[in-house]
TrEMBL record:
A GO molecular-function descriptor: ADP binding
Gene3D superfamilies per the UniProt record, alphabetical: P-loop containing nucleotide triphosphate hydrolases, Tetratricopeptide repeat domain
UniProt name for this protein: Regulatory protein AfsR
Stored SMART domains: TPR (SM00028)
Organism: Micromonospora lupini str. Lupac 08
SUPFAM superfamilies cross-referenced by the UniProt entry: P-loop containing nucleoside triphosphate hydrolases (SSF52540), TPR-like (SSF48452)
Pfam families referenced in this protein's UniProt entry, alphabetically: TPR_12
Matching InterPro entries: P-loop_NTPase, TPR-like_helical_dom_sf, TPR_rpt
Domain of life: Bacteria
Length: 710
């Protein structure tokens, strides 16, 4: 960035529009002649399509009220509307700046060299009335003269498209009543010691984005296709330059429907091209200038991260992609800082990042242009394997008892987090939920079938604790197809067993039985006796779910006998729990009690390994005690189950225990307490779209009906 003496000290100033003006008429400063001239009014007109920005305008007003003088930096990605915001705010407050306004386009990201501050300063001095032949030759003397002339001025200076803090600092007036508004794609934190305030300018929210379309195209036309207009605003990501380009195309073709334009922009591969065809406006060119300013390391990381399968990602993922073990963690942080500073990456939370949709598309275009296919595939695989490695660490903490298949990673990974407790592991799984599900889909689409199966398998604790049955169906179905393509019979059996249970939970009982029987068959092919028993127990549960209680009891009894012949005591506890709950449900709580007591003893020894099923036993015991009329023991067990399931974050099971508390209260004749418990349980089941909801609502209706009769 040039910062020395300007090469042009008089005459025309390249790239800068100035008007002659004066603040101090008929005065000589250091030998420089100052003539009487009009007050400078260089500010460009406001945009006719300017929309909203209430919070940013209020922030600028607030800073001005606090300080009197102000240096405000409006920062954000290219095309987000920083310049329009600066002009809008300035024009609304012109009466405050009685000594005029100075304006310069600093060309920081125009594709040409950023403008030399000496060139700008020379033009500002002429606008303030200094004769061209009286402007000092050296930059330091120009700065001195500029500060002297502006020392007592109520002046507004707008510096558009700044490249660096050094470029701006030279142009700051000395007055305590002057205001400087800077726009930049960089954060310009170097101006903070000069008292600068940073104002983030982000994309327009959906309503304001549609309003911009209305202003540019016409309200009547947009209102006729309001839903399509909302979709168009979403495709443009609320980025004003994209919205203006889209609006220009609509305005130039009055018969073109918004719906048709949405269809044309639906293809991500063509989106930037279709938003870059209006004279003087190009999304791609806007992004290109920011991209070309990056270092080689930052541009490479920018391209790689755009291949990420999900919307957001953490610093740990970036570390894995960048290879911190090879490049150094501090260096990775520096490169990420460069992307943030350039507003090509957005930090949405501490160590949590995302791309604007259009910036991600541009980065992917650059990746296709600059990176070889095998390099791109390797980067994607690193991301997928990162999620597998991290999720497996979480899985080992949450469900250490599960049987797993080994996996060989393509490279040693940097970045996957370690988890010291269940809460941290489950929190990570929940936070990365969408990324894990999308990673599995991408792995399958790329033909990485073993990896796709592993990514399906490793989500088990997430789906166990946080439910989400439709997601579970997709994960399990993909897991079955991945195992089949991989050719691993045992892996197929695991997913068929899970898919059968998921189908049962959503009421697809025929499919559930088909998948369950197929799971038994595949386990037999694999020679896995325990797997066969596991799948047969899944069928027994299906029989219980579909009203075939006798068949379920026979199957559970057979399974329990098989469990006792194997060394896995935890499996014995599960079968005791399942058979005990069935006995209670079929009106035989006395037969259920010893089974649940045995299950309780087993899981009491395994509470550190499997606290989830230890809490499930408490739910079963509460139901048994309710059945035999021991309401005190029933309430104690149900209350403890609520507490434990809440600690585990298992909302569905917590709601089940709350529902039991409602039944206990009803038995005691406390209808108000019962009603409160039923409503709490119903709210949770409704949120989860759980199949238990109708039964709870029926009980609530019965309770309300009995109250009406009284």
């Amino acid at each position: 960035m040039p910062s020395g003496t300007s090469n042009e000290q008089s005459g025309n100033v390249s790239g800068l529009s100035v008007q002659a003006g004066v603040i101090h008429g008929g005065v000589h400063f250091g030998g420089a002649s100052v003539d009487r001239s009009p007050i400078p009014r260089q500010l460009p007109a406001p945009s006719p399509n300017f929309t909203n920005r209430t919070s940013e305008l209020s922030a600028l007003d607030g800073y001005l009220a606090e300080r009197g003088n102000l240096v405000a930096v409006l920062l954000g990605p290219g095309g987000v509307g920083k310049s329009a915001l600066a002009r809008q705010w300035a024009h609304g407050r012109l009466d405050r700046f009685v000594d005029g306004q100075l304006y310069a386009d600093l060309r920081g990201f125009s594709g040409a060299e950023p403008l030399d501050p000496g060139v700008v300063l020379s033009a500002f001095l002429r606008a303030l009335g200094v004769a061209p032949d009286r402007i000092p030759l050296h930059l330091a003397e120009q700065v001195t003269l500029y500060r002297t002339m502006t020392a007592n001025s109520s002046l507004l200076v707008v510096l558009d498209d700044a490249y660096s803090a050094a470029q701006v600092r030279t142009l700051l007036p000395a007055s305590t009543s002057a205001v400087v508004v800077v726009t930049s794609r960089r954060r310009l934190t170097g101006l903070l010691p000069d008292g600068a305030c940073l104002v983030e300018v982000g994309p327009l929210p959906a309503p304001e984005a549609v309003e911009l379309l209305e202003r540019a195209v016409g309200r009547e036309r947009i209102l006729k296709e309001f839903a399509s207009a909302e979709e168009l605003a979403g495709i443009c990501g609320g980025l004003p330059i994209a919205l203006v380009v889209a609006a220009a195309r609509l305005a130039s073709r009055p018969k073109l429907t918004v719906r048709r334009m949405v269809a044309e922009l639906a293809d991500e591969a063509q989106r930037l091209t279709r938003l870059s065809v209006v004279d003087g406006l190009s999304i791609r060119t806007t992004f290109q200038f920011s991209y070309q300013s990056l270092t080689a390391e930052a541009s490479a990381l920018y391209r790689k991260l755009a291949l990420h399968p999900g919307a957001e990602f953490g610093m740990d993922l970036i570390t894995a992609v960048a290879g911190a073990g090879r490049a150094g963690g501090a260096q990775v942080g520096t490169v990420v800082g460069e992307l943030l500073d350039a507003n090509l990456l957005e930090e949405v939370a501490e160590d949590r990042f995302r791309y604007h949709d259009l910036l991600r598309l541009y980065a992917r275009e650059m990746s296709e242009q600059d990176d070889p296919p095998d390099g791109r595939l390797a980067a994607v695989r690193t991301m997928l394997e990162f999620y597998l490695a991290a999720a497996r660490r979480a899985d080992l903490v949450v469900t250490p008892y599960r049987r797993r298949l080994p996996y060989v990673y393509q490279d040693a990974l940097d970045g996957p987090p370690e988890f010291s407790d269940r809460a941290g592991a489950l929190g990570w799984l929940d936070r990365e939920r969408s990324n894990l599900l999308e990673a599995g889909r991408v792995a399958f689409d790329l033909g990485l079938h073993e990896l796709a199966w592993q990514l399906s398998d490793v989500t088990w604790p997430l789906l166990l604790y946080f439910k989400g049955y439709q997601e579970r169906l997709k994960v399990d179905e993909r897991g079955v197809r991945a195992a089949q393509a991989w050719g691993n019979v045992w892996a197929e059996a695991v997913m068929l067993k899970r898919l059968g249970r998921a189908c049962s939970r959503v009421g697809a009982h025929e499919a559930a039985e088909r998948h369950g029987r197929a799971a038994v068959d595949r386990y037999r092919q694999a020679g896995d006796i325990q797997g066969v028993i596991d799948a047969e127990e899944g069928l027994a549960t299906l029989y219980a779910d579909t009203g075939r209680e006798e068949q379920a009891a026979e199957a559970y009894t057979r399974v329990l006998a098989g469990r006792r012949a194997l060394p896995n005591v935890r499996s014995v506890g599960l079968s005791c729990l399942n058979l005990g709950m069935l006995r209670t449900r079929t009106g035989r709580p006395a037969e259920a009690l010893p089974l649940l007591v045995e299950a309780g003893q087993i899981f009491a020894e395994l509470s550190d390994v499997d606290p989830y099923n230890a809490a499930r036993v408490l739910i079963g015991l509460a139901d048994v005690y309710l059945g035999v009329g021991d309401l005190g023991a029933a309430e104690e067990s149900a209350t403890e189950a609520v507490r434990r399931m809440a600690e585990l974050g298992a909302d569905s099971e917590r709601a089940e225990a709350v529902f039991l508390l409602g039944r206990i209260a009803r038995r005691r004749g406390d209808d108000e307490a019962a009603r409160q418990h039923y409503r709490e349980a119903a709210a949770v089941f409704a949120t989860l779209a759980a199949p238990r909801l109708p039964d709870v609502l029926r009980r609530l209706d019965e309770l309300d009906g009995s109250a009406d009769e009284q």
